Amino acid sequence: MSTTLPQRPLVPVPTIAGLDVTDSSLRPVSARRAVVVAFGALVGAVVLGVSIGPADVSFSAVLRVVASHVPFVHFHSGVSRVDADVLWQIRLPRVVLGGMVGAMLAGGGAAFQGVFRNPLADPYLLGVAAGAGLGATLVIVAGSRLSELLPLAAFAGAVGAVTLTYLVGATVGRQGATVSIVLAGVAVAALLTAIQTFLQQQHAPDLQAVYGWILGSLTVATWSDVVLILPYVALSAVVLIAHRRLLDVLRVGEDEAESLGVRSARVRLTVVAAATLGTAAAVAVSGLIGFVGIIVPHTVRLTTNASYRVVVPVSMIGGAAFLILADVAARTVLAPSEIPIGVVTAFVGAPFFLFVLRSRRVGRST
Amino acid sequence: MISLRAVTVRYGSTPAISSMSEEIGPGEWVGLIGPNGAGKTTLLSAVAGLVPHEGDIRVDGAIVSSLSPKRLARLVAYVPQQPVLPADMTVGQYVLLGRTPHIGYFGFESAADRRVCGELVDSLDLGPMSQRPLATLSGGEMQRLVLARALAQEAPVLLLDEPTSALDLGRRVEALELVDTLRKERGLTVLSALHDLTLAGQFAERLILLAGGRAVVTGKPDEVLTERSLTGHFGAHVRVLCSDGDLVVVPQRVR
Predict the structure, then answer these.
(1) At what angle are helices B139-152 and B169-186 packed, to 10 degrees?
(2) Is residue A8 part of a domain?
(3) Chain A partners within 8 Å of B41 (Cβ)
(4) What residues have CB less than 8 Å from B242, skipping those under 6 apart?
(5) What one-character DSSP code corresponds to residue B132?
(6) Which CATH number fits the domain that encloses residue A116?
(7) Interface check B51 vs A, CB under 8 A
(8) Which domain holds residue A160?
């Protein structure tokens, strides 16, 4: 372990406090490179996301349209009204929302893998998906006049499911041992999914709508969706990133973390609450997009560093990039019709997941 | 340094430690011996604040049950019998975890924290492997590693649960010599469960023989390691021999 002063990088590198790129024990080059690569991927994904679509608009037109919307700056983009609207009202909110959803699903997955010390944990582990699915199904079968309430119902269902899981799981076993919480999550998810399936079968005409929501989509993304989930996403991201060092302490198990002075049950509750808030907000506007929460954090782990100081922030950046790209694929592969984005993430995710399972790291402690 | 008064620990309704009282002075090395299930690990966990107890446990005058985990972790460093060693964590990252009690909730290691760990890593001969993942370490290296993490807490009390159980004979002596050296250098108070009775007699200044959750014999090694008390409480026939001033405990087969 080096105690000499770090050399300043010649090129300013985006750093995150605590993700100490000069710490030799964190394999500096790979940690720094991971941040740079993830940022690069995100920038590339955003450029692709806003440039690709049925209307042929150049990237410089995109920049000019964005500049024309900067408050207090009177700038005329010179882009046709229709193109400007396509960009500003359709593509940009879709890319931004996709980025936020991807960041939450990947960051939430990384956080859940940390607090449950389980490489297979994803943000849906404690019933978020089942709860959101039930909430959305209730609104859809209740009739179209309530469709405005769908995000709220999905959000409430997701948060309610995790609360129920925690209330049951954390009160049994030794001080709410993680195993009993995970088992309670399985039971709650099964129960809510059973109710959701029953409702769905009783309302066959709505089957298509329910199914479409479950597979996930960013088709109708608007700026109001972005504004709607922004507070939750921001809060969740800040709390998860702030806990990245403590997630590393939890890697040695609850007892040892406790003997190092960390109240592990409290850390776990805070992290679960933050990840659930962000994930619930994400699924409320995008439906149930699978696999992002597993494949993105594992890619970061396998390619750079297993420390949560790296895994949490880099997963968020990479998750945003991944989902924006998946959405580009979803709307271009069979254009003009769209593939559900959940199908795209799973189509990429399932083979990748098999690769993760085969790799020797899985099965060991995370 | 460690003071126990009428300490009882229950799992459910059965007491694992019954009304135990003991005083352990600063800089002392006290060994806990006794058959499996006697309560050695339970007692260490109670002093580390990991299991609730009745009665009074004080460390350096402070009541353990009223201290925050962080304050306690600055007084007591605990090494469990089988520490969790995340396979892909590096040696350097693992030792840094020991600084946790000195870092704020949202804080990160300071240069001073890194210096403390760097010195420990060097003094325990872990320097060349500071970048290696834990999965690649040998048993002896792992033992030095967990000691380094515990010492990084800079706590005056060190609790060790069977620190040598996974080691071969040479590494056992080496590990205990290391603990003894560190204890003398840093003035640490050591309370450790020890399986190997001969080594317990060689290294601990005082022994507590636990049986059924009670301290049945306490005293200097030659007062505790007697054929009568060991045979009675371990359920085995033993001979205690003397070799160059050291006591040697030899199990006897019953034929």
Answers:
(1) 20
(2) no
(3) none
(4) B248
(5) S
(6) 1.10.3470.10
(7) no
(8) 27-358
Asked if B135's CB is within 8 angstroms of A261's CB, the reply is no
Cβ count near B103 (within 10 Å): 20
pTM of the model as a whole: 0.86
Phi, psi of B63 (to 5 degrees): -80, 120
| CB neighbours of residue A115 within 10 Å | 24
d(CA A258, CA B82): 15
Suggest the residue from A252, A263, A266 to mutate for an interface test with chain B (most B CBs closer than 10 A).
A252
A253–chain B nearest CA distance, Å: 7
In this structure, how many other beta carbons lie within 10 angstroms of the beta carbon of residue A239? 18
Residues in chain A: 366
Q: What is the 3-state secondary structure (H, E, C) of A250-299?
A: HCCCHHHHHHCCCCHHHHHHHHHHHHHHHHHHHHHHHCCCCCHHHHHHHH
Is B100's CB within 8 Å of A306's CB? Answer: no
Residue A14 covered by a domain: no
Length of chain B: 255
Question: Does residue A105 sit within a domain?
Answer: yes
C-alpha neighbours within 13 Å on the C-beta side of residue B14: 7
Q: What are residue B243's DSSP bridge partners?
A: B246
Nearest CA to A246 out of A221, A220, A274, A225 is that of: A274
Which amino acid would we find at residue A200?
A: Q
Set out the domains of chain B in order of their start, with CATH numbers. Answer: 2-85+154-252 (3.40.50.300)
Neighbouring-strand partners of residue B54: B8
* Angle, helix A264-286 to helix A92-115, in steps of 10 degrees: 150
> Tens-digit pLDDT profile for chain A (366 aa)?
333 333 333 333 333 333 333 344 444 446 778 889 899 999 999 999 988 877 777 888 888 888 888 887 777 877 888 888 888 888 899 999 999 999 999 999 999 999 998 888 888 889 999 999 999 999 888 876 777 788 889 999 999 999 999 888 877 765 557 888 888 999 999 999 999 999 988 888 888 888 888 888 888 888 988 998 999 999 999 999 999 999 999 999 888 999 999 998 899 999 999 999 999 999 989 988 888 998 899 888 877 778 899 999 999 999 999 999 999 999 888 878 888 898 899 888 778 767 766 764 444 444
Max Cα–Cα distance, chain B, nearest Å:
63
ipTM of the complex: 0.90
Spatial separation of the C-alpha atoms in residues B31 and B46, rounded to whole Å: 16
How many domains would you assign to chain A?
A: 1
Residue A11 in domain: no
